[in-house]
Structure formats: structure tokens, C-alpha cells
Amino acid sequence: MRSVSRTTISSTRNMTKMSCQCPERRQLRWWERQQLERQGCRSSEWERVRITDGTDLSLVRCVRFCGDVSIGSLGSDGNVPDSGIENARICDCTIGDNVTIRNIGGALRGCRVGDRAIIENTARVEFEPAASCGLLTAVNVLDETGSRPVYIYPGLSAQVAWLSAHYPHWAEETLRPMLDERFDVCAVPPAIGADAVIRDCGPLVNVRVYDGVTIQGARSLKNGMVVNNAPRGRELAYIGSGVDAENFIVEDGVVDSGSLLRNCYVGQGVVVDKGFTAHDTLMFANTSLENGEACAVFAGPYTVSMHKSSLLIGCELSFMNAGSGTNQSNHMYKLGPVHWGIMQRGVKTASSSYVMWGAKIGAFSMIMGTHKNHPDTSDFPFSYIFGDEKGATTVVPGMMLRSCGLARDEKKWPVRDRRLKRRIPMHDRINFPVLNPVTVSAMASAMELIDSLIAKGPDDDLFIRHKGMKFRASSLDRAKKYYTLAIAHYLQTILNGEPFPEAADGCEAVKWVDVGGQTVTAADVEAAMRAESLADIEAVFTRAAEAFADREKAWIAATLREYWADRRGLMKEYSEQYLQLTADDRASYRRSLDEETAMLLS
Q: Per the structure, how many domains does the chain have?
């Protein structure tokens, strides 16, 4: 079964929904006021403080009240034994039932606090009037100068963000009015949600915290949202110690251990940890970023960077793995940091690799060395890409198809989906297979290009040149073989013994596109851009996910049937050869590993 992760069309919780219910609340009686004063509480306008009959005032101590303050029941829930309000200044707030508010250095100001919420040992929690809380912040991805902004909001999918970054005029003229209609940035509820925990933190200013969110030890949070879509007990959203974030949305993701964010969206299942620094970066499903730095990056699903010395800048990625010392540059000191690039799905970078943007790297390729000639290797997926000390690029196409790691990656991605079992609406739609219409189309086109390059012949140094890249004739010959085996294996896997699909009348060979981790047709992209509402845009991609298997077979019938339909026996043989390549690679790797182990233990 080919794995496609699908999403439901479901936004995050209603932006205007409040976190707690407000039963009948009344003014203080004279003896209640005196009790509070004996317990160290103060107010210049006691008549503006309201409570319920279930408010145990013995749990309210050393509190300064300013403006209109309403307090729910305290001490009425045996499951919250430590509820109460102590050592705090509370200004213009509505407090839910059985909350715990203690040791607020500045003030708790201008918000609604949900039932059973905990806020303690925190510098201050304040909301300014009409604060946007990060809603529709412009994130300047790819081109760092801001020509391709993506406006962030709860429920942002990788697909809509991809459209925004690739078609900025459409985003400004069509999408932005839709967002303005759907979201009122001046009406974001200033709220700390029910069951939320804010503990041992620095200042939180204009930070909307959803139900069930935990913020533990954050250094400073300003103008943002921490969104939880999971039911109680399955929460994924978390902000940890030392985090410093401004102009952000974290949705069902984790930011921890001194990480720093500026103008960022952290999506579902994303983990940002161990001091990672990011600005103007979008991070989508199951991305893992630690230690290093990202700037103006579109980090599609399953982007991974774990090393301190790695810099990702001005690029689009997905299913990518960055080696230690990975480096890129988007600035030539002429017109500013206007350059950007694309690493198609599944690219890996070796230690200390360097790419000068703009460049476009083909899917599932391995980058090694230094590349300064702006290579476009997208015609040759699954390649080894070598750079020399002068920055010239040599491509060995198809070599990654031999790697046993591809099969391992394809199996591990669905299993490592952190969104699973959380019962949340999954915003990002993901196609997991390595061999899919996008990569197979690229291989089929590459085979035709290889024939023309071989016919052209090499230069005096025995290299064949194309678009600033160098090839050996022998490597092109070998690549054609590997591409043929991979296409045969793809067909064998899809058809799985079934008859070859018949080409329908009028069926044309459509173009496929990888849109933020989802494999769709170019017609789907056009349909999404014609849609008249945000929900309609998302619906286009949802329908594409649901229809993917049927469309894939129709595409096979239109493009690959003519050659392969009468070669079923050969197709099976080639598929077995492809599997043998990866089996041989795995066996060779294990032999080497055994030899290394024996050497180390000798």
C-alpha cells in the first residue's frame, strides 16, 4: 500500500472562543473585602472586583487588584488541590475556576485565564489592546529581502505556504484578502487557555496560549501563539527552558532548550531544540532542528538538521538531512541577500558541504564539497553531486538509487509521524514514496537527455558539460541503466500483478509537482490559485490526496504504458535487479561494519 497522509479540512479552534465559562459573578460583600485586606490584598476600587459564591477567599493572598477583575471558584475541585491566587498583581482579567496564580513579578494584565490554568513564578503575562498575537505575521522565506512573504495563522498548511512563496503576486492579491476576511487581527482573544501551564518564565507579552499548552522556563515570549489542537492528555504543543521567541506561531510543536525564534511558524510535530536559532523560517510536519541556524528557510516535512555548525539559508527543503558543517550563502554583496535555491525532496548534504544560491538540486541527491557555479541538477535525481576546491560541480547521476538508505527512509517516515495518535486535524498532506510521479517523470526525462549528452561527446578533458555541470560518459551510461531499473520497480510496485491500466480517451500526460511534501498535478496548483476562499484552496489539495492513487494509474497509462505494457516480464526482471542493488549495498555495508567493529575490538 502506497502511503499518503491525508488531512481533514479543519481549522484550529475558533479564534473567538473563550477558555472558561463565567457563572454568576457578584461584587464583594463588606466582610469579604475585609478578609482580603487582612490577607494582604489591595485595591483602590474594590467595587470592580467580582467573585462567585464558590470562591474560597482564604486562597487569595497578597494580591493587588487593578481595574475590572473577575474570579471564579477556588478550592471546589479536588483534582486541583493547590488552586489559589498569591503574590500577584492582576489588572483587568477574568479568571476561571480553580486556577493557580502565584508569584507574578510584574502583572497579569488584560486577559482571560481558563479553568484549572497554572501561572506561577513568572515575570509577567500581559496583553495590549488589539494585540495580534503573531496572527498574519509576514515570514520572509526564500528571498530574505521580503519579496515572497508568507502570512502565518493557525491551520497554515505546507501546501498553502508553498503557493504563497512560489507565487507572491497571487499571495498578495488573492490570498491576503481571504486571510483578512477570515481572521481579524484586532480580535484575537487575549487568553490563557484551560489547563494551560505557565511556570518559571520570563515575560509573556501578547502571547495567546491555547488549552492544554505547557510553557516551562521560557526566557521571553512576545507577540505569538502557542496552539494546541489535541484533546486533553494528548497535547503536543510545548515551550521549554530558555526559549526566546518573537512574532511566532507554534502549533502542535515543541520549542525547547534555549532556542531562539523570530518571525517563524513551527508546525505540527516539529521539534526545535538545543539552542537552534531561526528567523523568517517556516517549519512543517515532523521537522527536527537542533543546534544550528536557519534563515529564510521553507522547511517542508521531515527536514532534519542536528549539528551546531550547520547553516540553512534562503532555500526550500523537504525530507532533507543536513550533515555537520552544511553551509549556504544567499548574498553576493551587490543587491543584498536576494538569492535563493531549492533542494528537492530527500536531498542530503555531506559534512562541510557548501552551495552558493541560486541553485536547484535534484531529488534524493547527495551534495558533497563546494558548489559556486549555481548548478541546476533537477534533471538528474538520485545523484552524487561533487564540488571541487574551485566550486565546480561534477554530477554522477542515479547513484543514490543503489543506496539501501532510500528504502529505510521511506519506511521510517510514516512511523515517525509525531502527529499520529494525537487525534488532531493534520494540516500538511504528505506523500511518502520515494518513487512517485515527480521523481519517475524526472528519471524518464533524464534518460532522453542522457542520450543527447552522450551523442554530443566529451570535451578534451573527457568531461561532458551541461548547464555548468560536468559528467563522465561512463556515469551517464550507468545512470540510464539505474533509472530504467527504478522505473520498472516503480511500475511493478504500483501494479502489483494487476493488468496494465488502459489509457483513457483524451487522457494526456500531466505534469506533476511536489508541493510542500504532497505530490499533485500542475492542474491542482492552478485550481487552488483559482479558488475563492481559504477553505476552497485546502479542499483542492484534500481532493488531490484522495484521488492520488487513481490519478497516478491514469498517468502511468498515459505515459508509460506504450513502452512497458508488452514488457511485463522484463519489468519484473528489472524490478528484481533494482532490489538486488539495494540488497548488495546493505550486505556490503554490513560487511564493512563488521570489519570496523573487529578492528576496533582487536
A: 1
Closest CA to 322 of 338, 343, 337: 343
pLDDT at 12 over 80: no
Q: What angle, rounded to 10 degrees, do the helices at 522-530 and 158-166 form? A: 90
pLDDT category at 129 given cuts 50, 70, 90 is: very high
Three-state DSSP state, 566: coil
Q: Angle, to 10 degrees, between the axis of helix 522-530 and the axis of helix 534-546? A: 160
In a domain, 236, yes or no: no
Q: Model-level pTM greater than 0.85? A: yes
Residue 382 lies in a domain: no
Residue 525 is assigned to a structural domain of this protein: no
Domain membership flag for residue 257: no
DSSP H or E run through 368: strand 366-368
Three-state SS at 85 = strand
CB 85 within 8 A of CB 13: no
Q: Which of 400, 396, 395, 399 is nearest to 468 (CA)?
A: 395
Cα of 414 vs its chain's centroid, Å: 15
pLDDT digits (tens, 9 = 90+) for 64-122: 999 999 999 998 776 777 899 999 999 999 999 999 999 999 999 999 999 999 999 99
Q: Domain range holding 44?
A: 25-110
